[in-house]
Design goal:
alpha+beta, four-stranded antiparallel β-sheet, 3 helices, 4 strands, 25% strand
Length: 110
């Protein structure tokens, strides 16, 4: 399936740019060629991953977190994440639309 992972970095503002640059580098060297990522804002990064199952998303997340925490102390930098199955979310929204109910466009809300 296809999964969307939203990461949010929490750290002191003075460190944010350095942490984000490092994390984006880790993502670039870790992901496969068909995976897509983007920086959403100063503290968030989104990934789109083509995986066999949701458990594989957590393997990717653990790998990325491990590399980030190897460089930055976990006491000063926190990495939060949320995983969404894109196809499942889209199918649920389509069912809502077909039933005539109003649908919220932002389907990646946590």
């Amino acid at each position: 399936g296809s999964y969307f992972v939203l990461f949010e970095i929490r750290c002191p503002k003075a460190k944010m740019d350095k942490v984000m640059r490092y994390f984006l580098g880790v993502i670039a060297e870790t992901l496969r060629i068909n995976d897509v990522y983007t920086q959403i804002n100063q503290s968030q990064v989104g990934l789109m991953l083509k995986l066999q199952n949701e458990q594989d998303a957590f393997i990717v997340i653990e790998r990325l977190m491990g590399k980030l925490y190897k460089k930055f102390n976990a006491d000063s930098v926190k990495l939060n994440y949320h995983v969404t199955n894109i196809l499942k979310e889209a199918q649920e929204n389509i069912r809502v639309i077909k039933s005539g109910k109003e649908v919220e466009l932002n389907s990646f809300k946590s």
